[in-house]
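Forgive a beginner's question, but would it be possible to get a protein, spelled out as residues, together with the matching structure tokens, please?
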Amino acid sequence: MARGSPVNPPWLPQAYPFRQVDRVLERDPPRRCVTLKVFSADELLLEGSDTVPPSLVLEALCQSAACLEADGTSGEGRILRIEEAILSGKVKPGDRLIVSTTLLERGALGLRAESVGEVEGKQVARLRVFVRPGGPPA
């Protein structure tokens, strides 16, 4: 399991400004991963906002689940379904969102996972998501 790699892997899903995973901190595919998203105050998507929109927080949790790729190489995926999403706190520009994602089950169509987001050790969001590994369809 790699910890704190300073290099952003090329397989992180999507590209700026929609990438909501800045760095993979830990990885044990396909069982678990921990990712980091720092919501910078000067991000285009946060202009004029004193809190991060909940949709961006949940997107960070979904993208972390995409890093559970079964073969440990791609990290790309397509969100098939969000089963449950709970926001229990606010995220502000400048906050470091740490997302811990755990595989719940693997099926023929994809992976079911739970992602928990924390800021300064306090849970701010949790969701269960079903993702299909691999890149977008051709």
